[in-house]
Amino acid sequence: MVKGSKKATRKFAQSGQLKKTIQARRKHQQIQKKITKKQTGKKSGANAREEDGEEDQDEVEEKGSKSKSLKGMSVDDFLGGGFIDEDDEDVVSDAEGLDEDEEGEDEDEEGLDDDHSFASVDDLEDEGVNHLEELSKLAEKDPEFYKYLQENDRELLDFDPNAIEEDSEEEAEEDDAMETDKIPVLTKQVLQKWQKALLEQRSLRALRKLLIAFRSAAHMNEEDQVVAWTVDSPSVYNKLVITALRYTPVVLEHHCPYKTLANGKFKAPAQTHKLKTLQKMILSYFHNVIHITSQMSDPDMLKLAVSESAKLLPYVVSSRRAVKQYLKACLELWSTADDTVRIAAFLAIRKLASATDESIMDMVLKGTYLALVRSCKSTSAHTLPSILLMKNSASEIFCMDHAAAYQHAFGYIRQLAIHLRNSMKMKTKVGFIYLFVSTDLAHPPSQESFKQVYNWQFVHSIDFWSLVLARACDAQATAEKGGEDSALKPLVYPLVQVATGAIKLISNARSFPFHFHLLRSLIHLSRHTRTYIPLAPHLLPILTTLLATSKPKASTLRPLDFDTTIRVPQQYLGTRIYTEGADALEGVWAGEGGWEEVPWGG
Q1: 20-58, pLDDT tens digit by residue?
Q2: Does an H or E element contain 267, and which?
Q3: What is the annotated signal peptide range for this record (predicted)?
């Protein structure tokens, strides 16, 4: 709050009529401009000067100097009306001086470096000084506008400043307490007063105080941070965090609404004077949310923080630093947190990808795929469900914009092909698509070279891209687009070439689980894209090898989990457990039970 602001300013700010008053002033401004234009035209014409012969040149200059003096005046001086002569009241528009004052506020706001005092936000609500006096004169000065208010905005005419006298005095005492050296303690009563102002009036002043307290809570235990409030109660701390998370999007949506387009993308709100003034406070709050999220351990609080902060993305997409930090935090939660938090983080990432800015979409696609690949490095019975969730959710993001996803998909599938080529140690330089037409299996690769392919990251990458292409090129998805093929469809053939080349890399019995994973991905891809993929040459060698074992060895080994195995241990070879498990699994994939019986790939 600016120290020079008057008590009447605080009264009007608490009335909750700011938005309506601004709209009324704009309407009034348009009417007064027409009146001013007509009167100016009369006085500037030669006929008008003859009719008003008593007016001399000195009076004209005096009126010109009065109009120039409007520039640079404060809101209090201007709305007080002391500089206006009674004869000129119907000529001067109060909106002109207000615009000049708002420009001055922009310059003052740039000099505020302390997050803990967003004084310019309060100025947005300091536009109602002497409001009752203006309304009392409005019926005589502008009957047309007064009639408009009676019909459309009766609450503005019935404005009673005495109803908020008590709240204004309490707020003044609160401001005085914050200006002292002693850090005040946040209580439930203070927090409830802010909540009431936010709910009933959508008060920006209350929002500013709430976010200052939230910043104190986010940096409460840090020695190098100067905080404005002390929170010594766990219940008050939780209530403060929840209030800031839930109420901030509501108030911002009320003052600066944004649009959601028909295609699901959102458009950032218009850069009005109010939004420019609020921008610094919004970014400060957004960074504090990211900071406090890294300190939370409760899944419910994490879910709330991620889901509510996602509602502020339209207001921060213009800041690349904020977007990168938020995306990094969401990807971390998406790949490591509880399932409910993972879903909330995914929804936040998807909303971020819904921005109309293409560069943000590229950041989301790249970050999502890299986070998925890092999480797939180790696969076990405990991590497999979360990996499946990540693959299915990430495939949805890649199918939001096929044209943007094509560039990333092509590059990453090509990277898989390069790993396969290095494992094969091919000497001839051929094109990307025809890398695997001729494979010399007479000289198998060394153990170190095939490790670039025989790993979980390669397997999950093949399966992920098969999910993406199957979702994008599905018959139903194609029909929704009017029968037009997806931009990702040309990548089906290169992906199949990479997968079949990896299957032919090593063809011993210990590698059959690796082959099963890739074959399952190809079957899923073939079914959804209606593309014929010759899989019999890859299934028959497995059947032949298994049938050749006429008398499998009995063993007390536990059953082999094919879902979490890509290379069979040596002791399982030739045993009945391995042979029967492989026969049953291959029978399901061959079509006896259908794809629905296979848990892999969603």
Answers
A1: 666 667 776 777 777 777 666 655 554 444 444 444 444
A2: strand 266-267
A3: none
**Looking up tokens 């397997």, which residue turns up?**
459
Q: Which amino acid is present at 97?
A: G
502 phi and psi angles, rounded to 5 deg: -70, -35
State if pTM tops 0.70.
no
Element (H, E) at 536: helix 536-548
Tokens describing residue 525: 């891809």
CA distances from 191 to 172, 185, 209, 414, 509 (A): 16, 11, 10, 56, 68
Instruction: For residue 349, give the amino acid letter.
Output: I
**Token code pair at residue 412:** 């990453």
How many CB atoms lie under 10 A from the CB of residue 469? 28
d(CA 314, CA 79): 34
Q: What is the CA radius of gyration of the chain?
A: 35
Write out residues in the chain with pLDDT < 50, as ranges: 1-5, 46-116, 126-130, 161-169, 173, 179-180, 426-446, 592-602
Q: How do residues 276-293 score in pLDDT, each as one tens digit?
A: 889 999 999 999 999 999
Q: Coil, strand or helix: which one is 504?
A: coil
User: Domain-by-domain residue ranges, the chain?
Assistant: 1-182, 430-597
- Dihedral of alpha carbons 536, 539, 545, 547, sign: negative
Cβ neighbour number for residue 143 with a 10 Å cutoff: 10
User: Both tokens of residue 259?
Assistant: 């649009």
